Amino acid sequence: MRVRFTKMQGTGNDFVMLDGIAQPFALTGEQLRRLADRRFGVGADQVLLVERSARPDVDFRYRIFNADGGEVEQCGNGARCFVKFVHARGLTHKTEIRVETKSGIIAPRLEPDGNVTVDMGAPQFAPSSVPFDTTGLTGTRANRAQRWTVDVDGVARELQVLSMGNPHAVQVVADIETAPVLTEGPRIEHHARFPERVNAGYMQVLGRQHVKLRVWERGAGETLACGTGACAAVVAGIHQALLDSPVIVQARGGQLRIAWDVETPGAHVFMTGPAETVFEGEIEIQCPDP
Fold this sequence. Notes:
Distance between the termini: 14 Å
Number of helices: 4
Number of strands: 19
Shape: globular
Largest sheet: 19 strands, mixed
Structural class: mainly beta
Strand content: 35-45%
Order of helices and strands: EEHEEEHEEEEEEEHEEEHEEEE
């Protein structure tokens, strides 16, 4: 099967975009892994699929597959690429669209300067919403935040755990460059207290409106940027009275602007950043044996 694709990136987080409206897809996990493979496929952190939504109040359905082939709930950087992609394909002329994801509805908006702002919804802090198993743990308060001390291979780590439509565990570090992202990140991702695994974020606070961030992403490893991870980190920092909105998040692939009003109950998080097309092409995908 020949598959047309567009390769896109948002602050270095890269995606294979598929138009499931023009060419409906039912790809297997093996085929998705092949697409995402950087040596044998196109190469990407995630494969993103555009589909029609069955809901009359929604413009599109947005499906997200990690490089390991697993489908996940949310991807913020991908959402910015999504709105640029549907515009470029002529699927919509709206500057703001409503998009159905596995975790709910998001509303990305194309800005006049070419950046994209995404309403990422409200953060969820209940451990059951992550999900996070708190059995035997006693949380500690840091301003508004609930922090949890979790044993990671014999080392006690203080994590703030929350959901941005997908699970995040955020910790504050003194130096982002020496943080154990590559060694400890996968241990946190697969920790038994996270039954659906988790994205492990490491945040260095540079000022009240400026942080550096690295994220070990569930199912993808460390990426150059993670949109939901940036949202989770800023929310965690504001909750701990370390940050004031809006916050510039410096990832290895570029900058994002995150805004959240902690004083308003149920306030949504807004993320603004770039999205760019890298190239387009076709690839032959091996169909599974009948």
